[in-house]
Specification:
- The structure is a single chain.
- It contains six helices and eleven strands.
- By secondary structure, it is of the alpha+beta class.
- It has two domains: about 140 residues; about 130 residues, Alpha-D-Glucose-1,6-Bisphosphate, Chain A, domain 4 (2-Layer Sandwich), CATH 3.30.530.
- Strands 6, 7, 8, 9, 10 and 11 form a six-stranded antiparallel β-sheet that branches. A five-stranded mixed β-sheet has the order 1-2-3-4-5.
């Protein structure tokens, strides 16, 4: 006969998969995700994109959080205008930043919602009465966009807002000549880990670095338990760095994106805190910090 303590252990083990499934069900945090819609709108306005797009609604399933964007303009030829604006922003952002506009939208939404890109989705849509739709998601480390385009209407010239002109004083990509893609990404990740590992808070805490999401040509690094790196007011900080490389012949094109949040709690449990986007309140501090950070990283990568 199986003893009572052993039966209890077996029972608890049987429950573990269901507990894990519940913990991973994103619908539990639906209220949190819906609140992030307003933060996304603030980000759009701050980057002078509020006259083009607005966050309209958020849908949450067990494994996916979808942000729906609609055109701000509601006059004649709305969908024609949105399509032209979208195409212009895609081209301009790729030229200035080394990544497409749709990639920036997904990265920003995943960052604000505190989920991995694979759990995030952004859909830009317009019905008036013609149809334009762009669906953005992450798959196998890539961020494709599925577009359903309407006929081309009157050409709308779109000027890329100055605040979208890269993160790093006008650029967040560079060409490293005579380099190997795998070696560059590995060296960049190791340099960033070394840069952060001895940081932390004035008392008790050492920086916690997570670079578990790593592929051959890209990686995401998250750092918590930080003080006085960017925010002068002593808030606790969360840094998220995305680095991606592309082999171009004998050279490597490297692009990066840096985002940060600040809050009053030392621990950063996803979707259970009051952390806020630094770009909305400490933008100048954020820009200066990442400018110095990536300059040091690039100087290191160019050696040897």
């Amino acid at each position: 006969m199986v003893s009572r303590p052993l039966r209890v252990v077996i029972f608890l083990i049987c429950l573990l998969p269901s507990f894990a499934a519940q913990a991973q069900d994103l619908r539990v945090d639906k209220i949190f995700f819906q609140k992030k819609k307003s933060e996304f709108n603030v980000w759009l306005r701050q980057n002078h994109l509020g006259q083009i797009l607005r966050a309209d609604s958020v849908a949450v399933s067990s494994q996916k959080v979808t942000l729906f964007l609609r055109p701000t303009y509601s006059g004649k030829h709305t969908c024609d205008s949105l399509q032209c604006a979208w195409q212009g922003l895609e081209r301009a952002n790729r030229f200035a930043n080394g990544q497409y506009f749709h990639e920036r939208l997904l990265h920003k939404w995943a960052f604000l919602a505190e989920i991995h890109e694979g759990q995030a989705e952004v859909i830009v849509r317009c019905h008036d009465p013609a149809h334009f739709r762009a669906k953005i998601y992450s798959r196998n480390g890539r961020i494709p966009v599925e577009e359903r385009n309407i006929r081309s209407g009157a050409v709308l010239e779109v000027k890329l807002p100055s605040t979208m002109q890269g993160i790093n004083s006008g650029e967040n990509n560079t060409l490293l000549r005579g380099k190997n893609l795998g070696q560059v990404c590995t060296k960049a990740r190791r340099w960033l880990v070394t840069n952060y590992k001895d940081k932390g808070t004035p008392v008790l805490w050492r920086a916690k670095v997570d670079s578990s999401y790593t592929a051959y040509d890209e990686f995401v690094m998250e750092v918590t338990h930080l003080n006085y790196e960017i925010c002068p007011d002593g808030f606790f900080e969360y840094h998220r760095i995305y680095v991606k490389g592309l082999q171009k012949g004998d050279d490597v094109e490297l692009s990066w994106e840096f985002q940060g949040k600040y809050g009053s709690g030392i621990i950063f449990p996803p979707r259970k805190n009051d952390y806020k986007d630094m770009e909305l309140h400490y933008k100048s501090n954020l820009d200066e910090y990442q400018k110095r950070l990536f300059k040091k990283m690039l100087d290191y990568l160019r050696q040897g």
